[in-house]
Amino acid sequence: MARVDIVMALYNKSKTVLRSIESIRRQTFTDWRLIVVDDGSMDDGPSKVRGLNDTRIELIHQENRGPGAARNTGLFRANAPFVAFLDSDDEWLPGHLADSIAAFESNPDVGIVASMYYEWPHRMDMTGHWVRRGVHPGTKYRLTGNEDPIQADWILSFLHTDTTMIRTERAQRVGGFYAEDRCLLGEDTIFFMRIGIRETILPISPASVIHHREESDLSHYAERPLAPFLYDPKILLNECPDTHRFLMEQVIDHFALRVAHDKARHGLKSQAQDMVQRFPGISRFTDEYSRCQTAITYSRWLVVWVQFKSYFGPRIRSYWGRFSGR
């Protein structure tokens, strides 16, 4: 039995899956098993995995049921003390597993270790982004139900599939990822909110994960579905401990407010207005609510500014970082 089981969901990622797997094989920590779950791929990605002929890699095939179901197949096959997840188009730097295991060994009370990460292709270290939102590497977070909901939202939203290592039994106990109706967006958010509100979370640095965003396209933003709990908050509330239910209600409201603001900034005024109407509790966040309403008012023009920032902002920050020696 390995010390860490790694779960990778695979669906039509022939171009990137070997890059992801090679980042695992380059880890300085070597006591791992990789469980690749082919979720009905229609390309030659599974054949490429099989061709590696690595006894540490187990390939499982299933009919296409969505990323949540694929990850759950791997999660409930895992029997190592710890489980980690890596998407088949992202990468780990060589010290990722070693840093995560060391954090667990030094902190037996921690249930989730989550690494800082880079956004690619602009090589942006996102550590500063999260520190500004109150998520500090080396600080433990255990939600009691009495926290500021804004802070709680940021803590839970920091957890991501590629960056987290979890005690396996605890990940299995909450039932794994949301897998209803072949959910394609938010299945991981639901899982991490369900488990994150129960466990002690430890963010760590340095950044050791590369999220590849090369294929993202602003023109597709309007087609992105909402996370299921924004249609039905009971998906989270019914699985929430009673002591944390009110906090979770407020976290959902703040999450909805962030989504509404983002919709407005992308020119989707009617969708933003609909979100505001469906979640009246967002008005409790006075300052952010005011900024959201302003964004809705000027949504038509804001979309141009967002497109400008999305294109030039990372390039400017990357250039300035090299120029200033950071």
Question: Can you give keywords for this protein?
Answer:
disordered C terminus, 9 strands, 43% helix, alpha/beta, Spore Coat Polysaccharide Biosynthesis Protein SpsA, Chain A, 326 residues
Report what the structure shows.
The structure is a single chain. With 326 residues, the chain is an alpha/beta fold. The protein folds into two domains: 4-216, Spore Coat Polysaccharide Biosynthesis Protein SpsA, Chain A (Alpha-Beta Complex), CATH 3.90.550.10; 219-303, no CATH class. Helices cover 43% and strands 17% of the residues. It has helices at 17-25, 45-51, 67-75, 96-106, 127-131, 149-158, 168-173, 187-196, 234-237, 245-265, 269-278, 286-297, 299-324; strands spanning 4-10, 32-39, 57-62, 82-85, 91-92, 112-120, 124-125, 164-167, 201-212. Strands 1, 2, 3, 4, 5, 6, 7, 8 and 9 form a nine-stranded mixed beta sheet that branches. Helix 10 runs antiparallel to helix 11. Residues 321-326 have low confidence and may be disordered.
